[in-house]
Design a protein that fits this description.
By secondary structure, this protein is of the alpha/beta class. The chain has 17 helices and 15 strands. It has helices at 2-31, 37-42, 45-62, 69-75, 85-114, 116-185, 195-277, 280-394, 396-573, 632-648, 664-668, 677-691, 748-768, 789-794, 827-851, 863-867, 891-906; strands at 576-583, 599-602, 605-613, 616-621, 624-626, 652-658, 696-708, 711-714, 722-723, 726-727, 735-736, 743-745, 777-788, 805-813, 877-885. β10 (726-727) and β11 form a beta hairpin. It is elongated and about 215 Å long. The structure holds adenosine-5'-triphosphate. Its main location: other. Residues 224-276, 318-475 form a coiled coil. Keywords: ATP-binding, Cell junction, Coiled coil, Cytoplasm, Cytoplasmic vesicle, Cytoskeleton, Membrane, Microtubule, Motor protein, Nucleotide-binding, Phosphoprotein.
Length: 924
């Protein structure tokens, strides 16, 4: 059984292979493109075809008989038989199978159906059926190819018919031209007829030729229109064929795809069966079948390539044919146009010749009539002559008549000779017209030559186009094959990628599902986290606000406590603090020899200093004593609490007291490199303001005045006009100086400029008034306006800053306190000294009254105390820096200043009364 099936498969395989080879050969021959195109073309088949085509073209230009032998061969190409050997084999095999099945069915039906080999064979049979279907399709393709060839042959025939008609038309035209030439040349040929008959015949011949020419032209035009109609019809037919071809190709492609699917299914089934059966013999056969299947697949792919090429080539060739037709049509149109021009020229010439012929015929006809009349008259006269002779014999009158007749005869003879001359002239004209006709003939010949040249060019062009068409077809075939190959490779690569995609897709799907669940969980988690965070934040904000409230409350308590402690400290120290600064001995102060230092400080006691005078020492105890080497910073550190208390809500006055040259200005203003109390106090003020900016808002205003001889001058104004102190009209009862320039200070750099300006103006005024600066009091008045921002915030105020309070800091550089008037000064110096001492005494009186809690405080005793009235009141703070010189020459003034300072300290009444040991001596 196995041997039988093996033999069967072998037979099938051999038949199939043989048939396949035959079919490949059959397909290759007619289409010039096949699966083995390259090899066959290398054998020289294609060049032969090309040569034959060229030869056909060359023959068609010369031969006008119709189709060439090659065309006839193409038309009679053999059709592929509908019944192939494989189909016959299949039918035979099916019948034998049926017979065998009917025989065996009786005995072992169930056994055979259960055999795997039978299943393999059934699949093989179905596969062969599919293959037969594929063969049918191939036959259809071959038929279609034959139809295409027929169409091409038909098209070539039509083209040849067109060429033939064109040649026929040229031939007709040549015949017409020949007839015209004959008609024109007829007058030249000698005729046995009389001249009058010759002329008439030539005229009738020319007219006939012209009429025939016109008729042929009309015929040509009609033929042209008919050919155009045929050409349009051919084009429409060609388009229909193209559409039909495309639809058939699509159908074929669809059927091939279906077949491919069937083959793949069969392959799968075969593989499944192979794995299921496991028999070694069946495996071998299945292996053979798979090999055959592979070869079939290759054939199928090659057939697809062939179909692709076939689908590409006709479109290319049809496009080429359309282009060729268009070019031929344009060429025909050009030729027709040139022919029409020639025909018009010919008709014009014909009209001219017709006219000239007509005129010549008319003249000839007239001459002929005249000649005929004259001949008749001559004949009549000749007929009369015998009668004249008889009359001449009979009577003299007759003789007279005879003479008249003779005369008349002579006249007629003369006329006849004239007529003969006219005839000669006419003959000359006829000769000229003959020459003109010859020229026309030459022109016609030239036109004919041109037409023949154009025809040759047309034929050459047609041949060239045919060659180009062949080349384009070849190039398109190769290009389409390469393109199909690349497409196939791409398809295979895509298929591989497609097979690799499903696992990736599955993993991506799982990832996506996990991500989706994560995202779903994340949104829940995110919402919960946000709600927790919101709760935490609100709790933290609540805690913070509570803490802030506590802190604010603590801060307020702290501020109040600090103020209380500060007040207690200041009260302990005393509301009037007296400081003493000993000026160091400078080089310029040692101009006198024998100068000795009489003032000494105790390093262990910062509150005491000793002055030696006339061998006796006296100790003064003040609030603070600065030794001569004390720096500006050390001095200010003692003043700093007072400046701070200004911010805390106190009016503060700081004085520099002492004799001229003792260092008052140095202590208050300082130098550029080493600034004094003024600059440092303002700097500290702004630092404090910066530290408190979150709680308080401050505005700092500055003014500066000079008091000289009880006259006020504005140091920030260039004019330096005199000012006066008055009660403020706002009803507060406070003092103010109308016209005094008050400048708002924005920062520490600004205060530097203001102080420099005040210093410059003080020097300028002093120079103008020829006064020394030490003879005047210089006041720097600083007003601080403070607003409690915390209070505004807590109360929800959104309007302009509320001015909570204002405080003043007065920094005063007093005039020199030396006792000039005691030395006998007079005039202006005396008045000056009196004013200075009055103001200083008034200051002492005011301080004494304040400390004594007197009901009346004599502020108005001097301009100085009057101006400082608001700052020197109860609850305010005052510091006096007493400047002393350490030199022996100034010991008197030193003692006087120290006594004044001690007097101020003495009157101090505070909770912590200080015990002040005072020595002897009192300043008057
Ligand atoms: N502590 C000091 N260290 C160094 N130099 C000083 C010191 N005190 C004062 N001087 C210098 O002494 C000179 C006189 O000082 P200053 O002008 O300040 O005295 P004054 O008391 O203001 O005089 P007047 O009353 O005439 O204005 C200046 O050149 C000053 O630089």
């Amino acid at each position: 059984m196995y041997a039988f099936y093996s033999l069967l498969v072998y037979i099938f395989y051999t038949v199939f292979k043989k048939e396949d080879v035959e079919e490949v050969d059959a397909l290759e021959e007619p289409a010039h493109v096949s699966m083995e195109t390259g090899s066959k073309r290398r054998d020289g088949h294609a060049p032969k075809k090309k040569k034959q085509a060229c030869a056909r073209l060359s023959d068609s230009s010369s031969d006008s008989d119709g189709l060439s032998p090659s065309d006839e061969d193409e038309e009679d190409a053999p059709d592929i038989p509908a019944c192939t050997p494989l189909a016959a084999f299949l039918s035979f095999k099916q019948e034998s199978e049926k017979r065998r099945a009917s025989q065996v069915q009786v005995d072992t039906t169930e056994k055979l159906t259960e055999s795997p080999l039978v299943a393999v064979m059934s699949h093989l049979l179905s596969f062969l059926e599919q293959y037969s279907h594929f063969q049918q399709l191939q036959q259809q393709v071959a038929q279609y190819r034959v139809q295409l060839k027929r169409h091409r042959v038909q098209h070539r025939r039509q083209m040849k018919a067109l060429r033939t008609s064109y040649r026929q038309r040229l031939h007709d035209k040549n015949s017409i031209i020949c007839s015209l030439e004959e008609a024109i040349s007829q007058p030249h040929t000698p005729s046995p007829l009389t001249p009058s008959e010759d002329v008439g015949s030539s005229e009738s011949g020319g007219l006939v030729g012209v009429h025939s020419l016109v008729a042929s032209l009309y015929g040509l035009q009609g033929e042209r229109s008919r050919l155009r109609g045929e050409l349009r019809l051919l084009h429409s037919q060609l388009e229909e064929k193209e559409q039909d071809r495309h639809s058939r190709i699509l159908d074929f492609q669809q059927q091939i795809d279906d077949l491919k699917g069937c083959i793949e299914e069969r392959e799968e089934e075969l593989s499944r069966l192979r794995t299921a059966s496991g028999a070694t013999d069946s495996e071998k056969r299945v292996l053979c079948l798979s090999v055959e299947n592979d070869s079939l697949k290759q054939n199928l792919s090659m057939t697809q390539g062939l179909l692709q090429q076939l689908s590409a080539i006709p479109s290319q060739s049809s496009n080429m044919l359309i282009k060729e037709n268009e070019s031929l049509r344009s060429r025909v149109q050009q030729l027709e146009m040139s022919l029409q021009e020639r025909a018009e020229q010919l008709s014009c010439m014909e009209r001219q010749s017709e006219k000239s012929e007509w005129r010549r015929g008319e003249e000839l006809r007239k001459r002929e009539d005249r000649v005929r009349e004259l001949q008749l008259e001559l004949d009549r006269e000749r007929g009369k002559e015998p009668m004249v002779k008889t009359v001449e014999v009979e009577s003299p009158s007759m003789l007279k008549q005879l003479s008249k007749a003779r005369q008349k005869n002579e006249l007629l003879s003369e006329k006849l000779s004239g007529q003969n001359e006219q005839c000669k002239h006419l003959e000359e004209q006829i000769r000229k017209s003959d020459e003109y006709s010859c020229n026309l003939q030459h022109k016609i010949a030239a036109y004919e030559c041109e037409i023949s040249k154009l025809r040759e060019e047309l034929l050459n062009e047609i041949g060239h186009l045919e060659e180009k068409k062949e080349e384009a077809v070849k190039a398109a075939a190769s290009c389409s094959a390469e393109h199909f190959q690349s497409l196939q490779e791409q398809f295979f690569s895509l298929q591989k990628r497609l097979t690799a995609l499903p696992p990736t897709l599955r993993s991506m799907k799982t990832d996506y599902a996990s991500l989706r669940s994560q995202v779903r969980n994340f949104s829940d988690f995110y919402g919960a986290a946000i709600s927790d965070a919101k709760k935490q934040i609100t709790a933290a904000i609540h805690e913070m606000s509570e803490a802030n409230k506590d802190l604010l409350e603590k801060y307020r308590k702290e501020v109040a406590l600090r103020r209380k402690y500060h007040e207690q400290l200041v009260e302990l120290k005393g509301n009037i603090r007296v400081l003493c600064r000993v000026k160091p001995v400078l080089k310029e102060d040692q101009h006198e020899e024998g100068q000795s230092v009489v003032v000494t400080t105790d390093p262990n006691n910062e509150s005491a200093l000793s002055v030696m005078n006339k061998g006796k020492g006296r100790t003064f105890e003040l609030d603070k004593v600065f030794h001569p080497q004390a720096t500006q910073e050390e001095v200010f550190q003692e003043i700093e609490p007072l400046v701070t208390s200004c911010i805390d809500g106190y009016h503060v006055c700081i004085f520099a007291y002492g004799q001229t040259g003792s260092g008052k200005t140095y202590t208050m203003e300082g130098s550029v490199e080493n600034p004094g109390i003024n600059q440092r106090a303002l700097k500290h003020l702004f630092n404090e303001i910066e530290d408190r900016k979150d709680m308080w808002s401050y505005t700092v205003n500055v003014s500066s005045v000079e008091i000289y001889n009880e006259v006020l001058r504005d140091l920030l104004s260039k004019e330096g006009e005199k000012l006066d102190i008055k009660i403020n009209p706002d009803g507060t009862g406070q003092l103010h100086v109308p016209g005094l320039r008050v400048t708002e200070v924005k920062g520490f750099q600004h205060i530097k400029k203001i102080l420099a300006k005040a210093r410059r103006n003080r020097i300028t005024f002093g120079t103008q008034m020829n006064q020394h600066s030490s003879r005047s009091h210089a006041l720097l008045c600083i007003t601080v306006y403070g607003t409690d921002l915390a209070g505004s915030k807590t109360t929800g105020e959104t309007t302009a800053l509320r001015v909570a309070c204002y405080y003043r800091l007065n920094l005063v550089d007093l005039a020199g306190s030396e006792r000039v008037w005691k030395s006998g000064a007079e005039g202006e110096r005396l008045k000056e000294a009196q004013n200075i001492n009055r103001s200083l005494l008034a200051l002492g009186d005011v301080i004494q009254a304040l400390r004594g809690n007197q009901t009346h405080v004599p502020f108005r005793n001097s301009r100085l105390t009057y101006l400082l009235q608001d700052s020197l009141g109860k609850g305010n703070k005052t510091a006096m820096v007493v400047q002393v010189s350490a030199l022996e020459s100034n010991v008197g003034e030193t003692l006087c200043s120290l006594k004044f300072a001690q007097k101020v300290c003495k009157v101090e009444l505070g909770p912590a009364a200080r015990k002040i040991e005072s020595g002897a001596g009192q300043c008057d």
